[in-house]
Amino acid sequence: MCKTEYAVCGNPHLLEGSLSAFLPSLNLAPRLSIPNPWIRSYSFDGKEEWEVNPLYCNTVREIYPYSNSNRLLNIVDMAIFDFLIGNMDRHHYEMFTKFGDDGFLLHLDNARGFGRHSHDEISILAPLSQCCIIKRTTLLRLQLLAEPEYRLSDVMRESLLQDPLAPVLTEPHLLALDRRLQLILEAVGKCIDTFGEATVVANDTAQPQSPAEDRAKVDT
């Protein structure tokens, strides 16, 4: 496959591609499309503020809903996911309206992921490196996947072998996951060195108390 309107050609006849799955219609599952605060500039005319201002996160923290919810932590999670797959195209994110402001983010539209296995686009990690916050559960999972017995590339390789389209990812892409994971941990380490673990690592492991537990405290 080699056409003038595409900037890629087969080698000699095989071409890397992506497979997309679609969510239910908006009538069945209403959702909001929200601009990513770290949207990338898509022209040569100028830069977005976050691309030139290392203190940009201070502005984001003052804007609802990033000022009083877990949304900013979820944005950091999304940036980590995008960095691992090499997706520079996260201009929007979506949320199901049913769950309100504290619902989870839909990592929808990842077609630009796994493009260049040899290039690590550090700017994708801007929400992490500029805000210097991360969920404890996310950090623990990343640290586990960096251990030799649970290496991310091995876990992904084994998982994808079950897919009808196996191997899905080429070996260089799998190895890039391990390399990028180390870069994420290094970024977190720099934040901890600067601000301290108590400030950087957000404790999201505490379970909310049940109404019965609250009543018991009042009774005593």
Please tag this protein with its features.
single chain, 6% strand, two-stranded parallel sheet, two-stranded antiparallel ribbon, disordered C terminus
Portion in strands = 5-15%
Q: What shape does the CA trace take?
A: globular
Largest sheet: 2 strands, antiparallel
Radius of gyration: 20 Å
Question: How would you spell out the order of helices and strands?
Answer: EHHHEHEHHHHEH
Low-confidence stretches: 208-212, 214-220
* Helix percentage: 25-40%
Q: Specify the number of helices.
A: 9
Rounded to the nearest angstrom, the distance between the terminal CA atoms is 74 Å
The structural domain count equals 1
Written description of the protein model:
The protein has 220 residues and is mostly helical. The chain has one domain (29-40, 47-202). The protein is 40% helix and 6% strand. The protein has a two-stranded antiparallel sheet with strand order 1-2. The protein has a two-stranded parallel sheet with strand order 3-4. Helix 3 (71-85) runs antiparallel to helix 7 and helix 6 (152-160) packs antiparallel against helix 7 (171-195). The chain is globular. The N and C termini lie far apart (74 Å). One of its GO terms (cellular component) is Golgi apparatus. This is FA20A Pseudokinase. Its cofactor is Mn(2+).
